[in-house]
Structures are given as structure tokens and as C-alpha cells.
From TrEMBL:
<feature type="transmembrane region" description="Helical">
    <location>
        <begin position="278"/>
        <end position="311"/>
    </location>
</feature>
<dbReference type="GO" id="GO:0055085">
    <property type="term" value="P:transmembrane transport"/>
</dbReference>
<comment type="similarity">
    <text>Belongs to the binding-protein-dependent transport system permease family.</text>
</comment>
<keyword id="KW-0813">Transport</keyword>
<dbReference type="GO" id="GO:0005886">
    <property type="term" value="C:plasma membrane"/>
</dbReference>
<dbReference type="InterPro" id="IPR051393">
    <property type="entry name" value="ABC_transporter_permease"/>
</dbReference>
<dbReference type="Pfam" id="PF00528">
    <property type="entry name" value="BPD_transp_1"/>
</dbReference>
<keyword id="KW-0472">Membrane</keyword>
<feature type="transmembrane region" description="Helical">
    <location>
        <begin position="135"/>
        <end position="155"/>
    </location>
</feature>
<feature type="transmembrane region" description="Helical">
    <location>
        <begin position="43"/>
        <end position="62"/>
    </location>
</feature>
<feature type="transmembrane region" description="Helical">
    <location>
        <begin position="179"/>
        <end position="199"/>
    </location>
</feature>
<keyword id="KW-1003">Cell membrane</keyword>
<keyword id="KW-0762">Sugar transport</keyword>
<feature type="transmembrane region" description="Helical">
    <location>
        <begin position="101"/>
        <end position="123"/>
    </location>
</feature>
<dbReference type="InterPro" id="IPR000515">
    <property type="entry name" value="MetI-like"/>
</dbReference>
<feature type="region of interest" description="Disordered">
    <location>
        <begin position="1"/>
        <end position="23"/>
    </location>
</feature>
<keyword id="KW-1133">Transmembrane helix</keyword>
Amino acid sequence: MSTSTTARREARTRTRRAPSSSRRLPQGLRAWLRALPFMGPHLVLFAVFGLIPAVFGIYVAFTQWNLVGDPEFIGLDNFRVLFDTDHAFHRIFINGLWNTILFVIIGVPLLIGVPLVLAVLLSRKDLRAANVFQGIFFVPGLISVSAGAIAWNLVFNREFGPVNHYLGTDISFTTTQPWAWGTIFVLTIWAGIGGNLIIYRSAISAVPQELYEVASIDGAGAARSFINVTLPSIRLPLLYTTVMTTTASFNVFAQPLMLTNGGPADSTTVLMMEVRDLAFGGGPSIAGVASAMAVLLGLVLMAISAIQFFIMYRRTDV
């Protein structure tokens, strides 16, 4: 056998034994690289329409800017203004934040409790056409809030609305309290319970029937079975919907804008409406103060979400 033939065989043997560059990579990194082409379009959209605007909005909170010239960095001045009790922006911020928190305090329990009760009722074995009722409750969520607000404005209209007509009253629901808040919550519940309803009903259907049978043998009624069996079994969907519903409620904007336009006397003007008016209102833009308000709202939301995670995950580990 010639020397050249032996050298070629040894070279091929070394080539086969040499690990490829992909094998030298950690398994987790290889899996991430394989998934990157599928995640790429979403990551680009998230960066362009989510991450970059959020970072720029935080930067604007530390500047003085009218949306025309170049932003001028002024440090924490915008935040100092919001906490200065003698300044008009402080009163605007506190009023908007209070109205937002009021909406969250009342709206979130309704958006969690109402679909949960409906999901329990629709999960009954003796109920016919449960899917039809589920579809009826879900369809309003597919309609834009603006279109829904127009329809409910007609329902609550003082002159020819069916509510005043059948109740024999003469109430201007959208311009007097507490009816103004009531109309906002009616629109919110009508449009917002469908998604949570589907999540809860799916989670309840996955609860083993043996647990209910054991509870029944122990003498548990419907209410006790719901508290001791159903709720612990769907705690993770409850955690998810609670956090997501709270996040959406803190960002409420369209319902009070379309139904009451913040009235009467700014009693339903939420913080996102104040941010919109300061940054894009009829007068000179005060984008820095508006961004500072949005940043503070985000911090409040992050704190509340962290508390929710802590409380519900601690209950999950018990």
C-alpha cells in the first residue's frame, strides 16, 4: 500500500472523528438557533412596535418636548411637577390615577367573577346548547369598543333609549353619577367576559370527575365543591386571567372616552385620557409630562402584578 493512500485514509478517519461546529454548541443554544427563523418575524414586530417605542417613551419622560423640535433632557423635573401638590399637573395626575384605580377595583372582580360563574353554569352536564350560550357571550368581544359604545349610548339615551322607556325614568345615564360609571362597567362586562369565560370553562372541563365524586361522598354540596375542588384545580388559569385583566384594566381608555368623554366634571377621566390630552391635545404638546405619567402608571402596574404573582403562586405551592 502506497504512502499516499495511507495518508488519505488517515485524513478521512480524522475528518469523521472531528466533531462538527454545531455539535460543539450547547444543546439549548442549538435548539434556540433552530427556533430563531420561526421567532424572527415576531421578534422584529415586537421590537419595532413594542420595545423601541417603550424605551423611547421612557426617555421622553426625562425630557421637555413638544413633538416638533428636539427633546431637551431635563432629568427628573417632569416627575417633580407631578408630585408638587401646588401644580396643576399634580391634580390632573391624581384625578386620572384615582379614576383608573377605581375602575380596576370594581372592574377586575367583575371581569373575573362573572365569567367564572357563567363557566360553572355552562359546565353542567344537564345543560343543553352550552356551546351556543358560550358563543353568545364571546361574540361581543369581537366587536370594537367604539362600535359597542355607540350601541350602548343608544340603549342609555335619555330621550329614546329603551332603558328609560321601559323603566319609566328620565335619567341622563352618561352625564350623571353614579350612572356614568355604571354605563362604563356595563360596556366593559358585555365586551370583556368572553375570553375569560372560554379559559375558565376549558379549565373546569379538565378537572377530574373523581374529585367531585369524592367531595360528594364526603357530603360536600355545590358551593363547597366549587370552593374546595374547582377553585384549587384552576388556580393557574385564574392567575393568568387575573394578571392580564388587571393589566388591561389599568390601560382603560376607550370606554370612558366613547361613553362619557370623561364627564361629568372629569369624574370618569382616566389616566390614559390625560396622557392623550397632554401629548396630543388641542394645545401645545407636553409630551414629557405625559410620558412621565405613563411611566408612573407602568410602575404601579408592575408592583400590583408582582403582588398578584406572589400571593397566587404562594397559594399554589401550599
